[in-house]
Amino acid sequence: MGQGVPGPENNPELWVQLGEEARITNQAILETVQELKNEMARLREDNARLTMEQERILKSLSDRQNQPPVNPSVEQQRMSEEQNHHIPPEGSEEQEERSDNAFEQQTSKRQRVELKGEFRKIKPPHFDREQEEAAEAWLINMNKYFHLYEYDHNLKARLAIFQLQGKATLWWEEVKIVKGVTEQTITWDNFQMFFKGIYLTERFYDEKAREFHDLRLGQQTMDEFITCFTSLLRYVPYIREEKEKVQRFVNSLPPYMRERIEFDNPKSMDEVIRKARICYQQSKQKGEAASRKWNEKKGFKAVGNNKENRSNGNKGNGKGPNSRFAARTTSKFRAANESKVDEQQPRLDSEGTTRPPVQ
């Protein structure tokens, strides 16, 4: 057999060589580990320094937010004066300008505080009735109130629930039992959905839309008609175009107004309302003039009738052609009545006793 490669146990030099390589490798590994430790320490220091710097910036921003706003021009003027150690003399224009700027800052700050206080005086409306119009108005007013304050959705719902009174409070207790909701979990959108489901049903909106389509001027004044038309317009959201609104308004007017307004061809609601007011006022004036003429004519006829009645009355007073016949008839009628009255009077007989009248 040929000679094989000598193993480590038979070669001491190889053992020495392997040991030296392992030592060098271990030394390199130890140096790498030490460098990693040093790098980690530096990273921790940098992280701590960045954290402190972030806290300082956040604190500075918080202090600036809590401070009242300052006019930049006034602030720059103050800084430049502090740098130059310049104080304007008393009574000079510069001193007066500085005083005016300070007064304006104080006034604007006071106005903001007063306005905020006025908003706090505004109280949300209560709801305790069952009419659809009252429910709709309450919901609109609550949304207007929430526009003033930045409440979250749950707080809006809880505040609205607190404003319920009477039967509305009992309704909410029923909703909690049936729907399984509470004041702590309900949102404002869900509350509006439940509220509209009981107080503002589809039937209510259908009736309002029908009332809009059936609206006519009739015996209303023009101002009343315009108010009613514009208030009902929100119940027909499918009428969006201005042209459709104008045409619906014109169709609700009497024919004599409709023809005049259509001839002018109005393009907007403001224009058609203005023309309708003019037509209504002109027709009202014509009606008053015609009524005045008719009353004058009636008065003239009444005067003629009174004269005729007086002439007919004179015929029975001996002044007309038939006065003799009328006088004879009157005297006969008077004599007959007197005889009847005389017969009904009680009479005394020869002995002085009273006899009953002749029947």
SS class: mainly alpha
Write out the strand line-up for the largest beta sheet, numbering strands in chain order.
Answer: 1-2
- DSSP strand (E) fraction? under 5%
Order of helices and strands: HHHHHHHHHHHHHEE
What's the count of strands? Answer: 2
Give the N-terminus to C-terminus distance in angstroms: 189 Å
Rg for CA atoms: 53 Å
The helix fraction, in percent, is: over 70%
Low-pLDDT residue intervals, each spanning 5 or more residues: 343-359
Shape descriptor: elongated
Q: What's the overall average pLDDT, rounded?
A: 75
Number of helices: 13
Question: Can you summarize the main beta sheet?
Answer: 2 strands, antiparallel
Task: Detail the topology: elements first, then pairings.
Layout (H helix, E strand, L loop, with lengths): L11 H55 L5 H13 L8 H29 L10 H17 L4 H10 L4 H13 L8 H12 L2 H12 L8 H11 L9 H10 L3 H10 L4 H51 L3 H22 L2 E2 L5 E2 L4
Antiparallel strand pairs: 1-2
